[in-house]
Specification:
- By secondary structure, this protein is mainly α.
- It is elongated.
- The chain starts with 8 loop residues before the first helix and ends with a helix.
- Helix 7 (91-99) runs parallel beside helix 9.
- The chain contains 9 helices and no strands.
Amino acid sequence: MAFAGGGDPRDRAQRFIARLGNADALVIYSYCGEDWVDDEAAAWARQNVAAPTARMWQELGLRPAEARRYIQRGLTPMAVARAWWQAGIPFEETASWAGAGLTPEEAAVQRARGVTAEQAETLRTLRDGR
């Protein structure tokens, strides 16, 4: 198995596994199986999100902790995308509004009041501590 970034694949995998502490073994395996063992992969694995699912959340523009909030409510990436679409929120704005902590309906109200996705992104950044 070859891992991106060079080096001995076994060493890279071992370092990745060691960084994750108590993460689920099947979740860790999903990242090793996809050759995704960087810092971003570790952040997703720490949230107990398997690699294929993490890639779907990434496509929505969500960060690991943001996706975890949806996962804890039993929602899939597709269900989340559908809810935002049905509320009339453009795809490219979804992550900003969701990351700011708003529901699709709340975001629609704010957009109607003139609040922009850029302003939501600022709130997201403050909320996330970045």
